[in-house]
Design brief:
By secondary structure, the protein is an alpha+beta fold. The protein has 16 helices and 12 strands.
Length: 424
C-alpha cells in the first residue's frame, strides 16, 4: 500500500446550504399504493372494442401499455443525450466518479444499431409495489435489440420483444401484457405530442379519487420546521397534472408545467412556489415563474445547474471539513494508544534489514485507527508494492481516503520539517 503525500490543496471553504428533500414523492408513492383497491373501482368499465385498441396503439408507442392505474409516462430521447457531459455534471453534483459510463455508451450503441426509437417509461400501481417500471422501446429490429441489451445487461425474462417493441420490466407484468386492455388517457399522452416540448418529458397524473384520499391523510398545515406556510392536503387537491420537460448537459434546461383544477387553485399553487423561491433565493434565483390562467410554469436554464453544482460542492466541502476534523481527533487518540503500548511514537516508516522502506507510519497506527481487519491483511515483512500486498495497493483505510485524490493517496499528510518528529 503506497500512502503517498497528497498534492498541495487549498484549504476547504465550507458553506452551510441545503438540499431539497425528495421525501414528498416517496410518501406520495407509498400512499398511492394504499389505494390500489379504490382505484380498481375506476377500472370497472367495459373493455374497449378491438378497433379502439388498435387506434390507441397506433396513436402513440406508449399508449398500448397504459390503463386507468397508470400514473407516470416518461419519454426519453436517448439520441439527444451527451453521455460524457451528463456524467460530468453528475460527478460535479454528487462528488462521485460515475463508473458506468462505458456501459451506458454500450447501451446507446445497441440502440443505434437496432434503429431504436425513443424510450418510454411507464409506471403505475404495480410499478410502485414491485419497484420496477415498464420500459418500452419501439424498434424495427426487436430481436436484434433484445440480443444487444442482453449482452450488456445479462440474460433474463425481464427483457423481451412484443410486436414492434422491446420491453424491460417485471417478468409477471410483461407476461400480463399479452392480454392487456389499454385505456385512453389523453391527460398522460397529450404533453408528448406538444411540438414545443424539450428533449425529454415526464408526465404525472393522479386520478381524482386518489388525490382525495391523499388529501384525507396528509396534514392541513405545513410540517414542523417547514420554512413557509403550505397545506400539503390542499396542494394535492389543487394540482391535477405535473409535466417535467428537460434537456441534459452541456446545454441543460428544465421546465415544470403545473396544471391546476381551477383559478383559485392556481392562485394557491402560484403563491406557494413564489414563497419557495423567496426562501431559497440563492438556489432558485434563476428560476422563472409564469402563470397562464390555471397553468403555472417554472423554468430554469443553464445557470441553475452551475448554481446547484456550486451548492453541492460547498455542502460536500462542509461535510468533508467535519470529517477531517474527526479523523484528526481519532488519529490523535491512536497515537496516544500506540505510545502507551509501545513506549514510543510510531516511526516515520518501517524498513527491512537492508534499510529499504516497507510501510509508512500510518500502518503502525491502523489497529488503533479502527482498521484492525485491514491491518491484519498486510504482509508487514514485505513492501507495500510486493505482489503479496498487490490487492491492497488500491485500497485506502477507512476515514483517510478521498475520491478527488489520485488512487493510493490519503488526506493525511505527515509534517516533515527541521525539528519535527520525523525529520531526517
Amino acid at each position: 500500500m503506497n500512502l503517498k503525500r497528497p498534492p498541495q490543496r487549498r484549504p476547504l471553504h465550507a458553506a452551510k446550504t441545503f438540499f431539497v428533500s425528495a421525501r414528498l414523492f416517496s410518501v406520495c408513492a407509498f400512499s398511492i399504493c394504499l389505494f390500489s383497491s379504490a382505484l380498481a373501482q375506476d377500472r370497472r368499465e367495459a373493455a374497449p372494442k378491438k378497433d379502439l385498441i388498435n387506434d390507441l396503439a397506433a396513436s402513440h408507442p406508449a399508449s398500448a401499455y397504459i390503463d386507468q392505474s397508470t400514473l407516470v409516462v416518461a419519454e426519453i430521447n436517448w439520441n439527444k443525450i451527451d453521455i460524457d457531459a451528463l456524467f460530468l455534471s453528475i460527478q460535479k453534483l454528487t462528488g462521485d466518479r460515475p463508473s458506468d459510463t462505458p456501459m451506458v455508451k454500450e447501451l446507446a450503441d445497441k440502440l443505434k444499431r437496432a434503429q431504436a426509437g425513443k424510450i418510454y417509461v411507464i409506471a403505475g400501481l404495480q410499478s410502485f409495489s414491485t419497484g420496477i417500471p415498464l420500459i418500452a422501446i419501439p424498434t424495427p429490429q426487436p430481436r436484434k435489440l433484445v440480443e444487444g441489451l442482453k449482452e450488456v445487461l445479462g440474460d433474463g425474462d425481464y427483457i423481451t420483444a412484443l410486436r414492434s417493441n422491446v420491453l424491460l420490466g417485471d417478468p409477471n407484468q410483461i407476461r400480463g401484457l399479452e392480454s392487456f386492455t389499454p385505456v385512453e388517457r389523453d391527460e398522460l399522452l397529450s404533453p408528448l405530442h406538444d411540438a414545443g416540448r424539450l428533449d425529454h418529458t415526464a408526465v404525472l397524473s393522479v386520478p381524482q379519487l386518489t388525490r382525495k384520499m391523499l388529501a384525507s391523510l396528509w396534514p392541513n398545515q405545513e410540517p414542523n420546521g417547514f420554512p413557509f406556510n403550505v397545506s400539503p392536503s390542499q396542494l394535492v387537491m389543487d394540482i391535477e397534472r405535473l409535466v417535467v420537460m428537460f434537456r441534459t448537459p452541456p446545454n441543460p434546461q428544465i421546465r415544470l408545467v403545473i396544471d391546476t383544477v381551477d383559478t383559485q387553485a392556481a392562485d394557491r399553487v402560484s403563491s406557494t412556489f413564489a414563497d419557495l423561491k423567496r426562501h431559497y433565493v440563492d438556489a432558485l434565483a434563476e428560476v422563472t415563474i409564469k402563470r397562464d390562467r390555471q397553468q403555472i410554469t417554472l423554468e430554469a436554464e443553464q445557470d441553475i445547474l452551475a448554481d446547484l453544482e456550486s451548492i453541492a460542492m460547498n455542502a460536500r466541502d462542509d461535510d468533508r471539513r467535519t470529517e477531517l476534523v474527526n479523523t484528526l481527533k481519532t488519529l490523535g487518540v491512536a497515537f496516544y494508544n500506540y505510545e502507551s503500548r509501545e513506549k514510543h511514537l510510531p516511526p516515520r516508516c518501517f524498513v527491512d534489514p537492508k534499510g529499504d522502506p516497507l510501510h509508512s507510519w500510518l500502518v503502525a497506527v491502523l489497529p488503533d485507527f479502527n482498521n484492525i481487519a485491514f491491518y491484519r491483511q498486510l504482509k508487514l515483512d514485505r513492501p507495500w508494492n510486493d505482489p503479496a500486498n498487490a490487492r491492497l495497493q488500491n485500497t485506502i483505510p477507512k476515514g483517510i481516503g478521498d475520491q478527488r485524490l489520485p488512487v493510493s493517496h490519503t488526506t493525511i499528510r505527515a509534517p516533515v520539517f527541521p525539528g519535527s518528529l520525523w525529520h531526517g
